[in-house]
């Protein structure tokens, strides 16, 4: 690029024009528009330049050019018909690093005048870097016909609202969205027909309508309990929420990390103890968001794995509430890792099934034949109460009674307990060991690897627990 297009603010800046004829006058007009502080030097001046001097627009120095005229000038134009003078101006200006333009002599220009489409404050400048001025002029003519006259007043109007809009929308993206809405609205046609008052009123209304901040819901997975398993995104959103809606499953250490002055709402959810109905929780999220609040709906594990995140998001979408979903480490992944049980292993399990022991509707029986197949791992959520049924069905459908089982209570938390047993003793062990919620059942050959791996590999978390693991064969 030979010339970098920049728009300069010449308001009251010192500019020198060497010359006093028509060419100097033409350049002078452009600088008067830009409110520059203009001095002209020439032995004589045309009448129009003299009038400008009388009006106080320019200062005339009746003299031949000499280098002192360049003192303290930012820009200089050589507009004489004398090549010698023009050359001198060019050389002297260059020596002093002053931008110079010798009219109609492009090699002697360190700046040039582009063709302009003027819709003040919108200005479009076109330059061919002096190579094809006629082509540049033709382009300008095309643009003149394409760009409507009302663009200038429209830009002035929106410019007068910029500070208010900036104050109202902190984020650039929100400001951009607002302006997109304005330019798609009838504000534009009102300016077009010259009704600036109506356009101004409409802009005020649009701004007022968005004054209430838009609410949003974050559906956040908090993982199985260890706060260090939170994702960075989960932590960020927990700390910017106005309201936190949480379940019992979310550990106290994690709840300690939510924004201090956020309102906390517990919606319960323990099997057989739903303190708030799911429908009411859904509605609560919508209501808070419609009040303009940032709502963090925090859930144990992953929101989309037995977390009812899907149901909540459906209701938010139906009510046109903005939301974000943050995945979390699901109990099967967290508990198995902290218990030293790989969910798949080339020697023992080629598949893993996530299963719930608790179905929404009665009669929604599980596919026991598929679940009883060998060489796979079952991670059973909410399976403690139904453990006698699970045990009986798996054995009845062909799974061996000696299949290894791990019952992981409070997985990944300080009080994690792993009870190792086998399938035909599952229910009895849950009873005698008095397993409490939350607990996950891992059924399959991989469960036996717990003995081998629990104190190695992932043991840094396990060995740091206050209570050692309780292993029951
Ligand atoms: C309603 S489900 C929620 C699952 C959760 N959305 C997830 O992805 O882990 C609750 C069940 O998850 C299992 N669970 C969740 N956290 C657990 C933990 N820390 N230790 C053991 N089991 C856990 C238990 O089976 C519990 O009954």
Secondary structure tally, helices: 18
Q: Main beta sheet: strand number and arrangement?
A: 5 strands, parallel
Q: Average the pLDDT over all residues and give the rounded result.
A: 90
Quaternary organisation: single chain
Strand content: 15-25%
- The CATH architecture designation of the largest domain is 2-Layer Sandwich
Number of strands: 17
CATH superfamily of the largest domain: Tetrapyrrole methylase, C-terminal domain
Number of domains: 4
Bound molecules: S-adenosylmethionine
Radius of gyration: 39 Å
Describe it for me?
The protein is of the alpha/beta class. The protein folds into 4 domains: 14-113, 3-Layer(aba) Sandwich (Rossmann fold), CATH 3.40.50; 151-207; 216-329, Tetrapyrrole methylase, N-terminal domain (Cobalt-precorrin-4 Transmethylase, domain 1); 332-465, Tetrapyrrole methylase, C-terminal domain (Methyltransferase, Cobalt-precorrin-4 Transmethylase, Domain 2), CATH 3.30.950. It has helices at 22-33, 47-54, 83-95, 133-146, 151-168, 172-183, 187-192, 196-209, 232-238, 252-255, 278-290, 309-318, 331-338, 368-371, 387-396, 426-432, 449-453, 459-463; strands spanning 14-18, 37-42, 58-62, 75-78, 99-102, 115-119, 122-126, 216-221, 243-246, 263-266, 294-299, 322-326, 351-356, 376-381, 404-409, 417-422, 439-443. The model is unreliable at 456-473 (pLDDT under 50). The chain binds S-adenosylmethionine. S-adenosylmethionine (SAM) binds next to helix 13 and strand 17. Residues 217-427 form the Tetrapyrrole methylase domain.
């Amino acid at each position: 690029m030979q010339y970098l297009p920049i728009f300069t603010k010449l308001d009251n800046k010192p500019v020198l024009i060497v010359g006093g004829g028509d060419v100097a006058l033409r350049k002078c007009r452009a600088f008067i528009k830009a409110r520059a502080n203009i001095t002209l030097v020439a032995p004589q001046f045309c009448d129009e330049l003299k009038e400008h001097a009388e009006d106080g627009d320019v200062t005339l120095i009746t003299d031949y050019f000499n280098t002192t005229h360049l003192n303290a000038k930012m820009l200089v134009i050589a507009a004489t018909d004398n090549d010698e003078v023009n050359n001198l101006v060019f050389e002297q200006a260059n020596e002093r690093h002053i931008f110079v333009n010798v009219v109609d002599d492009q090699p002697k220009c360190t700046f040039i005048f582009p063709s302009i489409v003027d819709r003040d404050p919108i200005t479009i400048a076109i330059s061919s870097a002096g190579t094809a001025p006629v082509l540049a002029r033709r382009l300008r003519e095309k643009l003149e016909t394409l760009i409507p006259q009302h663009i200038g007043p429209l830009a002035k109007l929106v410019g007068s609202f910029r500070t208010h809009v900036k104050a109202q929308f902190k984020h650039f993206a929100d400001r951009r969205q607002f302006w997109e809405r304005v330019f798609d609205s009838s504000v534009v046609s009102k300016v077009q027909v010259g009704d600036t008052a109506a356009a101004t009123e409409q802009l005020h209304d649009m701004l007022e309508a968005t004054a209430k901040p838009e609410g949003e819901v974050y559906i956040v997975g908090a993982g199985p309990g260890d706060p260090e398993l939170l994702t960075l995104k989960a932590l960020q959103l927990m700390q910017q929420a106005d309201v936190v809606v949480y379940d019992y499953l979310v550990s106290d250490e994690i709840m300690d990390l939510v924004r201090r002055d956020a309102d906390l709402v517990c919606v319960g959810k323990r099997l057989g103890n739903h303190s708030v109905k799911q429908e009411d929780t859904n509605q609560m999220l919508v209501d808070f968001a419609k009040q303009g609040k940032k709502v963090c709906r925090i859930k144990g594990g992953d929101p989309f794995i037995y977390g009812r995140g899907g149901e909540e998001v459906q209701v938010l979408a139906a009510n046109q509430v903005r939301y974000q979903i943050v995945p979390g480490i699901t109990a099967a992944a967290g508990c198995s890792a902290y218990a030293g049980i790989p969910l798949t292993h080339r020697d023992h399990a080629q598949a893993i099934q996530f299963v719930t022991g608790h179905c929404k509707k009665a009669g929604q029986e599980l596919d026991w034949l598929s679940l009883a197949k060998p060489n796979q791992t079952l991670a059973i959520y909410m399976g403690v109460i139904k453990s006698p049924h699970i045990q009986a069905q798996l054995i009845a459908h062909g799974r061996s009674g000696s299949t290894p089982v791990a019952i992981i209570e409070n997985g990944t938390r300080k009080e994690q307990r792993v009870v190792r047993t086998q399938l035909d003793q599952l229910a009895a062990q849950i009873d005698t060991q008095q397993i409490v919620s939350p607990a996950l059942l891992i059924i399959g050959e991989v469960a036996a690897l717990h003995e081998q791996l629990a104190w190695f590999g992932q043991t840094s978390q396990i060995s740091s627990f206050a209570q050692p693991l309780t292993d029951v064969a």
